[in-house]
Amino acid sequence: VVSRVSRRTHAHYDVKVSHACHCHIHSEQRFSNNLVTQGVSRTRTMAPGGRQLLWMASICWIASLMSGADAQHLIAYISQRGLHGEITFRQMNATTVEIKANLEATLQYPDQVWSWGVRRFPVDYSNIDPDERCELSRLGSQVLSFDEDLEYLVLPGNETSSWERNMQLIGDRGIWGKSLVLTEVNANARICATITTIQSSVEHMAEARFNTPVAGSVHFRWLAPAEGAVGDTLIYSDLYHIRAQPAALEEDRSQAGPFTQHHWKIYVTDIFKHDHHRTEDNCNFLQQVFDPQGSGAGKGIGDLDARLGRIGVAKNALRSPQRSVFRDAQLALLPSDLTIPHRTLYLVLFDNQHPDSYLACTKIRHVQPLTHKTFINSGGVKGEVTFMQRSKFDQTFLNFTLGAPLSQHVSRKFAEDVAAFRIHSLPPVPSRMGHEDYCLTTGDMHNPREINENIPPPGYGTQEQYPVGDLSGKLQGRNKGYWHQYVLPGTSSELNGLYWDVFLPLQGRYSIAQRSLVIYTFNRSNVTNITKMIWGCSSLSQYQRNGIYQQNMVTAQVLFRYPVVGRVIFRQTAEQPWQDTTVLFEYLIQADGSTQNTTHDHRWAIHSNAPGKDFYDWQQRCISAGPVYNPFRVDWGNRSVDDFCRPSLASMCRVGAMDARSGTLTIAGGRRVAQKISRKMFVDGNLPLSGRHSILGKSLVIYEDSGPKARGERLACSAVIGHFRRKVVAKEWYANGDSLTVSGRVEITQQSEYDVSNVEVQLKGLQDNTGYYIHRTPVEANLAFPCEASTLYGHWNPFDVSPKSSPPPKRGTTDQYEMGDLSGKFGGLEGVTQFEDAYNDTNLPLFGYNSIIGRSVVIQKKQKNARWACSTLERGYSPSEARELRAIASFHHPTGYAYGYIKMTQLIHNDGSQSETVIEVKLRHPGKNDRNSTRNHNWQIFVNPVGVDAAVKPTITRCVAGGYVWNPYYTQLADPLNLDLYEQECSPDNPLRCYVGDVGARLGTIDLGGERVVLTDSNFPLEAPVGAIGRSIVIFGPDHSHERFACANIEPDHNVIKYINLQKPPRFVVAQFLDELRSVMGIPEWMLDVDARKTKELHGGACIQMIIHFKGPLAHRLELDMSRLIAAGRLDAPSLFIPGYVNQKRKATISYRTCGVRDTNEKRTKNFKGGFYSSSSAPNEPKPLVLAFVVIGLAFRFL
To answer: How does pLDDT run across 474-529, given as a tens digit for each residue?
Structure first.
């Protein structure tokens, strides 16, 4: 029986559908979800929400079929000024349009009279100010009024009215792509909404975004031709200069106004010349106007100016913006035109003074809808919330799919208790997952307009009356004509199904991207005072348009270490530098000891160079960072370069001028208030993380205007470096005493600590298994039974979840199982020989203290739940992108005070950025039979290596050569003796505030004589120029003692592999052979071991073949010494020199010998043809002629 579980394919689904995809089409369809073919059972599951999204896609497809002949169907979504609902426009025939209203007035504004009409420009929904977005200067001139023909829109009275009017939806006088504007007759208040299509699949958007010397965008919005309707194209332009413009010439007074006029065309690149290396700074490589039909010069599709006239570019967009809209019936762009293999379309502007010269050019890019998702997987409730926005000119759609499908009781209880759904301004802190305060780290509700008073009850106001993040306030009880699946209809605060929101942008400064969804429930502990409390939360992540796969993101980080410590995260869609970048300041804390006061209003900027060593200078600090980064050369002549810089026009600012666009920073005086005071998030539209103008490799500088004059205004600086995704793979399987039949892999990836982990499982050769689990430590390959509890211990369970309280497999949520219980969370391996699965896990981190990197996966048998096979979770990476650095502190001194090792691994990326360091600790007291155990040993990295002092008896002189604790970044330099302050500020949640060498303060103490442990440290660099290799680790006495107890040097940990064939004497034991080998070579067991899987007998048991692993700093020398020892049978000096120690009883010889390739006992029955061998009674005896040929052959070989 083969079970295959995949998220990429689907069978049929068992669903009932009504009012789906905001298409207002009633349909019902039934499907089945079982497919049995040729005796193979295929159970199809998808990533959380994948099934729901596929369902939605199917319904949209059905809707499009049912409305194919009625494609000209437009809609405007309204929720403003006390009026909520929709107005639709449907082309009845060539001249008549049916207009329908589905509106309701709120109790606050029961009587309304509106003048209504259509204006030229669509609404920019990234602007959340209802008054600004509806300003007539932004929406353009009126092109149509309904007042005369249809009279005013009056409520009550016109809630569900219908009208007919002679007009066109598409064409020269069409209303598609424009804005519907309602103006209150008495109060002059205004409502506005974009008029868009109901069928989203027929409408497309492309953008040409300019950076220099002209900035702004030209949007191409087009309707694809459909059955019963022609296509159409609108072009919106909003361009402006970013440099001071010279005065107009006398002969060209047309350029004397607030804007300049330019010829513009669409060019296409040469099909024989790839343009992936082209930059938009130089347009001379463009030679051909886009003319696929061969219409001739001036008549091609790309000759926009010939058909539409010149395009305007504002001289000062703050004072006099120049927005234009064009309709071009001949420009029928399709997505295929924008993705032609090896060819790219460019929009080109020509110089107004020199019409034959290029002024600027940029690629025309197909704009994909933005999709963000968040997963709910806790407290027995599963589901997801999806947010989708087609462009900034469109509203946002939401899809809630929450519940407990396997437990009606849990679903009902959740529906009864839920109080509110809100977007908070920050994502939760990943390191606090599993703690009670996890969701308290999300900050306040996202409320950039600071609406705190006169907020109507949920569902009783219109959407501009609520904070942006108040989803329940805006959506509860709304969108009644859409598909919903309420557990308690009309009596609960639950949100479930489809909604739309006109004040919930996914792009722009106020975007909800990368923030968090927080769910509140009622606290009824005091029936006289029922309050709301946080029930759960999760981060929002960007997904591809299909909503199934995560969008690849570029993540960068800045680590501040002096005199401020902190971390900044930058995130942007990969290879799309024109998209928004989110900037998250995780924390900023004073660290040099000179002050414990919180300071405010710090300016900050991206500078052109990576900082040098002057980051801690007291004079001219951070001068090496250079000037503010300005790749597009923004220049306003005699005016200050930031005079025209505004948050709403980011392109008029220098790229690095962050404070002018996003505001200033606060630096906390201590860690206790840092999360609340200094943690902030910004969204910026002019901060590329990829491409030619990427800020990676630049520096982030924080200013302090009141600082010492000698130091200058620059307080701190640090480089912007990459922060790469993590991937682990378990694929090298070890049998636990049985024969090994399993193959395949378990692969887990996580883009950042703020994303879910993606798990893919492919296993073959299973035999009566039950499940697979992540265990605490890596596999020890030299053991005959490497999967046992004595070495891998139990499941990885950092939150101490009781397995007895966990629900049956797949019936609970991830927080109800042990973190490593993959079978419990997602299903086991019962009854299959081959297994494939793919899923998302919200509780399986590859970053931080609870990371699973360096642990192991164990497959269990059904019989007695015996451990059957196991594999270590190793890092997965491409050698072309990174390399793994391994180090070891080997405690092997025979007269020392600790025995074992501390191993460290770290990934070094090509840009120099470093991953977290994974540490494996295996230590005990010296002595082969010593079983003593001591606990709570502190441990630190000291600046120097140790020598003979590692084994001296007096603790006052032991390990003294190591010097003092390593502090390369001068933490608390101004007050180094204030230990109370240091111990207060240095902690696991503030690792950068600790000395780099103070490992115990970040990770906790260690034990001697206990179990192996795996730890993850974010502040443990291994490689120079700031690296731990070459220094020493000092372990202090038990029970938090301050006396130096044991020490060892940190050295590179190499791994050399060698095959060896030995003659097998009677009663040969591999373990005994290895012990003899180590004894002669004078090395501990972890420097030489064997791969137990590959040991096998040869030549009928006369020989044995093994794979020997030589490890540690002397691995290459060990391999040579063992070769000499086996060949000669003697090794005069030990391979490992131990300062101050000579083993007088060391054995120098060994009796084992190598074995030949050919079996000497094999009987040869074949005759060698040609007369060299005779068929005598002694077939193995060569004839003289044969010997002669052998001698001649050897002679020629050595000539």
So the answer is: 999 999 889 998 988 888 899 999 999 999 999 999 999 999 999 999 999 888 89
Quote the CA–CA distance of 787 and 792 in Å, as a whole number: 6
Cβ burial of 614 (10 Å; 0-12, 13-18, 19+) is middle
DSSP labels, 339-358: T-TT--EEEEEE-SSSTTSE
Fold of 882-1052: Immunoglobulin-like (2.60.40)
Q: Which two tokens stand for residue 1183?
A: 């004839």
Sign of the dihedral defined by the CA atoms of residues 410, 413, 415, 417, in that order: negative
Residues 6+ away with beta carbon under 8 Å from 468: 128, 423, 446, 447, 448, 449, 503, 504, 505, 510, 512
The 10s digit of each residue's pLDDT in 579-591 is: 999 999 999 999 9
Please give the Cα distance from 823 to 839 (Å, whole number).
12
Domain range 370-543, CATH architecture = Sandwich (2.60)
Q: Band the pLDDT of 371: cuts 50, 70, 90.
A: very high
- Residue 584 main-chain phi, psi, to 5 deg: -115, 115
- At 386 the three-state DSSP class reads strand
pLDDT reading at 45 higher than 70? no
Distance CA 375, CA 1135 (A): 56
- CATH of region 71-198, choose from 2.40.50.140, 2.60.40.1120, 2.60.40.200, 2.40.30.10: 2.60.40.200
- Looking at residue 29, what is its pLDDT? 33
The correct answer on CATH 1.10.287 for the domain covering 1054-1161 is no
CATH of domain 726-867: 2.60.40.200
pLDDT digits (tens, 9 = 90+) for 394-452: 999 999 999 887 778 888 999 999 999 999 999 999 999 999 999 999 999 999 999 99
Architecture of domain 553-722: Sandwich (2.60)
Extract the tokens encoding 326. 């064009």
In the block, tokens 């963000």 appear at: 372
Q: Assign residue 929 a region: left if phi > 0, alpha if psi is -120 to 50, beta otherwise? A: alpha
Beta partners for 887? Answer: 904, 1052
The C-alpha R_g of the chain, in whole angstroms, comes to 36
Does residue 1176 surpass a pLDDT of 50? Answer: no
Among 1077, 1028, 1021, 1088, residue whose Cα is nearest residue 1054 = 1088
pTM value is: 0.90
